[in-house]
Amino acid sequence: xxxxxxxxxxxxxxxxxxxxxxxxxAVCAEFGDIDPETLSEALTPEDLSVELCSPSxxxxxxxxxxxxxxxxxxxxARRPPDPRPAEKAAVNAAPVxxxxxxxxxxxxxxxxxxxxxxxxxxxxxxxxxxxxGFRWQPVPEPPKPWEDAVLSREQEAMLRKLLSKVVxxxxxxxxASRLLLERLGFAPRLLVQEGRKLAAANVNGMVDxxxxxxxxxxxxxxxxxxxxxxxxxxxAPVLDIMAATEAGIQVRDRQGxxxxxxxxxxxxxxxxVSILQNLLYLRRLSEENGLLGEMSPxxxxxxxxxxxxxxxxxxxxxxxxxxxxxxxxxxxxGKKAPTLFVxxxxxxxxGRYSDEDLVHALADAGAVETALRGxxxxxxxxxxxxxVLH
Length: 390
Prior knowledge:
Layout: E1 5-10, H1 13-30, E2 37-38, H2 45-52, E3 62-66, H3 94-102, E4 108-115, H4 123-130, E5 134-137, H5 153-167, E6 171-172, H6 174-184, H7 188-200, E7 206-207, H8 209-215, H9 225-232, H10 236-246, E8 251-252, E9 258-259, H11 261-288, H12 297-300, H13 305-325, H14 340-350, H15 355-371, H16 377-388
Parallel strand pairs: 1-4, 1-5, 2-3, 3-4, 6-7
Antiparallel strand pairs: 8-9
Helix pairs in contact: 2-3, 3-4, 5-7, 6-8, 10-11, 10-16, 11-14, 11-15, 13-14, 15-16
Protein name: DNA polymerase III subunit delta
Organism: Candidatus Sulfomarinibacter kjeldsenii
């Protein structure tokens, strides 16, 4: 059996740290629970090639670890919206490539890491890949501030594994886990921090979607409050955010990132338009299927409306209707449908508007978007928000 030769590369430093540590522990266990040897940062490919050909007189088995060989590999350019340039290898890795091709000494394993913004390539990557040891672990692209991260199955499984390490025996409902991953899946370190916080605040050993919404995302002067404001048809919270940005007070997006005044105006506008489109679509889908009367405020204002009427009745029926009608403003191509909890909020919010309200608001949105490029952006947006949410 050939000794392990592994290269772990990731676009996220925290993910690289975790994946590299896991790989090192696995190889050390395979070699009889020996301690790894982390080589110097000043190591050159020539130095490593010598180590790989030189069995130790004192240790019959060795696990050599090189934490970051970024300068030994080629990193392709990224595509927009983050067009970072390509990075050619600054160091010639030919000595290591040659040794890997000829075969390293018996009893030696090699584990390397690389933090790089794109999937690397080059002779060294090819040599490790030929040995079956190349592992690329990217994270999703940061989402637009009014959207959620889109995860592949592999990324979702990997992030769930990270979460499970820090939450202990606390159980996260599927909806709670999904919400965390969609909001913070592009930032594994922050995801883990939020997971620890939520686990500590668990209720009877469980964390649900409502607890995540209550504790994990910024509420005060955050664009996240826009959702509730539109659903409740209350202009004040949105106008407060606008006033805060004009006064230079910090405002954050749905993922907790700081946005500037001009950015906040456009993001707020885009978010409101997106929600209004969802509400109009949901009203029309409900009308086509005889459910429009169910979203009237007289029915949905009951405190027990969600558990009694929506969760096990209207909700599952709407889910099936959305699947049959996809893609749509609510269930876009390549993205997951909203959870029942979120769908319930949308349904309840849609009942506070008429089709005419929503059509007029969206018809006026084009003029507002144009105004956002001029000197009267704040005034135009304020008037539109006040008229839509009055």
